[in-house]
C-alpha cells in the first residue's frame, strides 16, 4: 500500500525524519506515537503526498511519489482517506455536502441513501443539514471520518483524531476505525494518547510505531 | 483537452457551490467589466467615427483637383483655354471648369472680406477638375500642361489630403489602442480580483486538494464564476454605453466630427461583441491566476 524506503525529511531548519523505512501492508492497523513535534504529522503528509521526501523513496500504491503529476496526486488521494485533528470543512456548505465532497470532485454521484447510512453510522444522521461551524469537536471529527471513507478508500490516515475529544467520544471514534479495519481497510493513526492505544490493542491486532530521535521504531512493552 | 473544456463550459451547480458566494471580488469583477465595457463602447464609437471620417476626407479630396494659372493678364485667357482643352482630352478627367470671378471672390472672402477689388489684384485663375472613377495620370497631365500653358500648376490635393488622412488614421489607431488598453486593464483588474478571491479561499482549495480534487476542477469553479460575473457586468456596461451613444446629438451640417461620433447601420451590433470578449478575457485571466496559485499548493 504505502512504503517508505530510507526516507528523510528536512524542513530547512534541520532534519525532522531520518532513515525511515516502513511498509503499511493491506488490512494492517498501525498507531504512530511520539512527543509533540516529533514528526508524526510530517510522516502522514509524506504518506499522502502533501510533502515530498528530501531523501529516500515514498511509494504509494506501487508508484513513487516523485513521479506523480499533480493530477496523479489528486487521483491517489481519492484512495486515501485523511482525518486531521484540525479538520477543515467548507463552512458555507451543509454537513452532508461536505461529507459527499470527495464524490463530487471525482464526478461520481453516490446513492443518497448511502450518504444517509454513512452519516447514521458515525452518529450524525440528524445533522446532515447543519453547517460545520454549528458542530461540536466530536461531531466534526466523526464527520471528517465519514468524509474520509465515503470513497471507499484503501487506506485511512488519521492525525490526532481524538486530540480534541473527551474519552467517551474518543472511544466511539476508535470503534469506528476498528470497524473499518475489520472491513479490510489499512489504518494508520498518529496519536500521543497511550490510553487509546492500549484500549485499541484489546480490540484489534495493532502495531505501534514510535518516532524517536528522528527515526521510527517498533514500540514494545514499555507502552 | 476536451475534458478541460467541458469542465469550463458545463454548468455544474454543485461544483460552483464549493466557492463561497460572497466577497469583494464579486462586485469588483462585475463593476470592472461593466465600467470597462462602457468605456470600450465609446472607444469603439470613436474608432469607427474616425475611420468614416478618414474615408470621407480621402474620398472627397481624391476625386477633385485644381489647376492654378498664374500668367500676365493678356495671357490669362489664352492659357485658360489651352488648359481646358488639355483637360478635356485627358483620359480619366470627368469634367473641368474655370471658376468665375464671383466664385473666386467667395473663396477669398473669409480672408479679405466681401468687398475685395478682384480686378485690381493679380490673382491666378483657378480651374476645378473632377476626376473620373478610373483616375488620371497626374505626371503625364503635368507635363502636357507645362507644354501647353507654362503658367499652369496642377494641384491634386495630395499635399492637403495626406496630413488629413494621416490624422484620421491616427485617430482610428488611437481608438483601437484604447480598446486594447481597456481590455488589458480589465484583465489586470480581474486577475487582481481573482487572486484576492483565491487567497481568501485558500482553505477551500486546501480541503478540495485533500479530498482528491484535480486542479482543473478547482480552477473551473473559480473561472466559471468570474467569467459569468464579467459577462453580466459587461452586458450591463455595453447596454449603458449604447444608450449613451444613442443619446448623443444627431449628425447635422454644422456638427462636424463630434456629432458624427456614434454607430451607423450594422455598426450598432458591434458593441454586442464586447460582453463575450470581456468574458473571454476574464476566463483567460482567472484561469492563469488560478493555476499559478494552485501550483503553489502541495
TrEMBL record, chain A:
Extract one GO cellular component term from the record: plasma membrane
Q: Which organism is it from?
A: Paragemmobacter kunshanensis
Keyword Ligase set for record: no
In what residue span(s) does the ABC transporter domain sit?
Answer: 2-223
- Pfam families (UniProt xref): ABC_tran
At the top level, the lineage of the source is Bacteria
Per its record, how is this protein called by name?
ATP-binding cassette domain-containing protein
Molecular functions per Gene Ontology? ATP binding; ATP hydrolysis activity; transmembrane transporter activity
Keyword list, A-Z: ATP-binding, Nucleotide-binding
Keyword match ATP-binding: yes
Amino acid at each position: 500500500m504505502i512504503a517508505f524506503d530510507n526516507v528523510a525529511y528536512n524542513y530547512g531548519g534541520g532534519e525532522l525524519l531520518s532513515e525511515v523505512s516502513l511498509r503499511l501492508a493491506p488490512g494492517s492497523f498501525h498507531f504512530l506515537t511520539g512527543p509533540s513535534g516529533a514528526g508524526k504529522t510530517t510522516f502522514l503528509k509524506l504518506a499522502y503526498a502533501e510533502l515530498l521526501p528530501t531523501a529516500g523513496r515514498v511509494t504509494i500504491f506501487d508508484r513513487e511519489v516523485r513521479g506523480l503529476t499533480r493530477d496523479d496526486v489528486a487521483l491517489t488521494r481519492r484512495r486515501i482517506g485523511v482525518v486531521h485533528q484540525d479538520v477543515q470543512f467548507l463552512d458555507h456548505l451543509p454537513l452532508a455536502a461536505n461529507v459527499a465532497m470527495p464524490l463530487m470532485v471525482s464526478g461520481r454521484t453516490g446513492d443518497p441513501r448511502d450518504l444517509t447510512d454513512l452519516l447514521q453510522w458515525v452518529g450524525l444522521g440528524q445533522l446532515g443539514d447543519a453547517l460545520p461551524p454549528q458542530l461540536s469537536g466530536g461531531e466534526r471529527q466523526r464527520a471528517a471520518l465519514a468524509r474520509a471513507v465515503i470513497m471507499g478508500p484503501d487506506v485511512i490516515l488519521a492525525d490526532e483524531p481524538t486530540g480534541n475529544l473527551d474519552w467517551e467520544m474518543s472511544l466511539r471514534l476508535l470503534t469506528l476505525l476498528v470497524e473499518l479495519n475489520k472491513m479490510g481497510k489499512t489504518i494508520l493513526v498518529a496519536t500521543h494518547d497511550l490510553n487509546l492505544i492500549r484500549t485499541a490493542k484489546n480490540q484489534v491486532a495493532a502495531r505501534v510505531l514510535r518516532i524517536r530521535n528522528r527515526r521510527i521504531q517498533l514500540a514494545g512493552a514499555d507502552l | 483537452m476536451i475534458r478541460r473544456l467541458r469542465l469550463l463550459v458545463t454548468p455544474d451547480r454543485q461544483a460552483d457551490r464549493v466557492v463561497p458566494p460572497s466577497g469583494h471580488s464579486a462586485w469588483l469583477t462585475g463593476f470592472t467589466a461593466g465600467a470597462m465595457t462602457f468605456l470600450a463602447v465609446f472607444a469603439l464609437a470613436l474608432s469607427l467615427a474616425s475611420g468614416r471620417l478618414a474615408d470621407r476626407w480621402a474620398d472627397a479630396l481624391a476625386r477633385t483637383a485644381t489647376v492654378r494659372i498664374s500668367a500676365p493678364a493678356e495671357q490669362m485667357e489664352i492659357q485658360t483655354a489651352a488648359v481646358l482643352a488639355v483637360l478635356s482630352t485627358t483620359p480619366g478627367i470627368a469634367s473641368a471648369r474655370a471658376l468665375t470671378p464671383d466664385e473666386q471672390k467667395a473663396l477669398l472672402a473669409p480672408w479679405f472680406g466681401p468687398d475685395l477689388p478682384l480686378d485690381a489684384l493679380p490673382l491666378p485663375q483657378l480651374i476645378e477638375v473632377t476626376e473620373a472613377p478610373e483616375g488620371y495620370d497626374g505626371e503625364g497631365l503635368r507635363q502636357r500642361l507645362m507644354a501647353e500653358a507654362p503658367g499652369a500648376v496642377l494641384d491634386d490635393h495630395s499635399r492637403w489630403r495626406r496630413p488629413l488622412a494621416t490624422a484620421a488614421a491616427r485617430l482610428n489607431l488611437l481608438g483601437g489602442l484604447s480598446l486594447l488598453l481597456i481590455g488589458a486593464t480589465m484583465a489586470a483588474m480581474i486577475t487582481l480580483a481573482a487572486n484576492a478571491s483565491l487567497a481568501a479561499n485558500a482553505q477551500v482549495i486546501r480541503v478540495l486538494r485533500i479530498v482528491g480534487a484535480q486542479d482543473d476542477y478547482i480552477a473551473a469553479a473559480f473561472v466559471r464564476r468570474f467569467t459569468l460575473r464579467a459577462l453580466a457586468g459587461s452586458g450591463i456596461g455595453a447596454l449603458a454605453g449604447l444608450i449613451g451613444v444613442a443619446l448623443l446629438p444627431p449628425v447635422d451640417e454644422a456638427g462636424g466630427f463630434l456629432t458624427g461620433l456614434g454607430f451607423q447601420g450594422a455598426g450598432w451590433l458591434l458593441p454586442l461583441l464586447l460582453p463575450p470578449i470581456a468574458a473571454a478575457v476574464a476566463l483567460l485571466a482567472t484561469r492563469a491566476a488560478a493555476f499559478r496559485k494552485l501550483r503553489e499548493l502541495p
